Model the fold of this input.
Amino acid sequence: MGKTILTGDRPTGRLHIGHYVGSLRQRVALQNSGEYDKIYIMIADAQALTDNFDNPDKVRQNIIEVALDYVSAGLDPAKSTLFIQSQISELTELTFYYMNLVTVSRLQRNPTVKSEIQLRNFEASIPVGFFTYPISQAADITFCKANVVPVGEDQLPMLEQTKEIVHKFNAVYAPDNPVLVEPKALVPEAEACKRLPGTDGKAKMSKSLGNCIYLADSADEVRTKIMSMYTDPLHLQVSDPGHLEGNTVFTYLDAFARDEHFERYCPDYANLDEMKAHYTKGGLGDVKVKKLLNNIVQEELEPIRKRRAEYEKDIPEIYNILRKGSDAAREVAAQTLSEVKRAMKIDYFEDMELIRAQSEKYKGSSSC
Done:
C-alpha cells in the first residue's frame, strides 16, 4: 500500500507563521520529498461552520485567503490535491455512519474537544456539530485512506479518536478484509515548531488577540510586530543577565534560525547557542536579537509575499485549482463510501446476489 497524507486548515482567517512552522512548511517539504503517493490538503470550511454557523460569510471570504497562503507557501496543485471540505458530500455520509461507533461519553473525554469547548465558552450550550467534529475529522482522514496525518500535539487526541473508529468499523463490518486504514501522526520534531506563541508571549497566536504575524503581512508590518515582541521583563539593562524561558524572540529563533543566518546577519556569533549563552550571561540587548530575528523572518517570508502578489492577479485560477482538487477528492471519496456501504450491507441496489437470493426465497414462498 502506498503512503497517503491528509491534512488541512479551518478557513477562519489568514494563515500566520505559527501555521507555517507548525505544519505548512513541513507539508511543502513532504510534497517535494517524493516519498508520498498522494497528498490531500483540505480547506475545512464545514468544520469551521461548527462554531461560526452564524457568520458564514467569514468562512466564505477566508477560503481564498487560505488558498492563496497555500500556493504562495509552495503547495503545488500538480503534486498535492487542494480541495474544499463542504464540496465532498460523501464526507457527510461517512460521518453519519461513524456516529454509531462513538459514544457521547467518549467524545466528552476527548481532551481537545474539552479545551476547545472551554475556549469558545460552549460549556452551557454545545452545538452538536461542534461536539461531533472529531467524528467528522475521522471521515476526512479515512475517505482517502490516509495513513500519515501531520498534526500538532494538541490534535493527537483527535487522531486517536479516528484510530478507534477505524478499528471498530473494521472489527464490526470487515473483520476479514479491512476497509478503513489506521492513520499515524506526524508531529513536528522541533519543540518550538509544535506551538509557536503569539508575539505578546501568550500561549497561542490568535487573530482576536492581535498577536499574529501573517504570511501575507508586508515587510513593514512584520518588522513592527517583531520589534515590539515580548522578551524578558527582567532584562532592563543590556548588562543584565537575560532569561530564555518564556522569551518569545528566542522561541521564534529556535523555530527559524540556522547557522548560516548568523554568518549573513550576525557574524559575532557562530550559531544560536553562542547568542543564547551571551544573552543569559548579560551584555546582549534585546534590540540586537530582534533585528536578527527580523532579518531571518523577512528572508523566509519574502518569496511567499512575491508569489502571493502574482497569484492575486488571477483569482479565478485559484478557484479553478480548488474546483479541480475537489472533483478529484470527490471521486476518491465516492469509492471509499461504496466500500463502506458494501461492508455495512447497505449497498442494496449494487448487490446482485442479494436480489437473486431474495427472488429465489419469495419464489419458493409463493409456490407453497
Q: What stands out?
A: The CA atoms of residues 157 and 198 lie 23 Å apart. The first helix runs from residue 17 to 33. The radius of gyration is 25 Å.
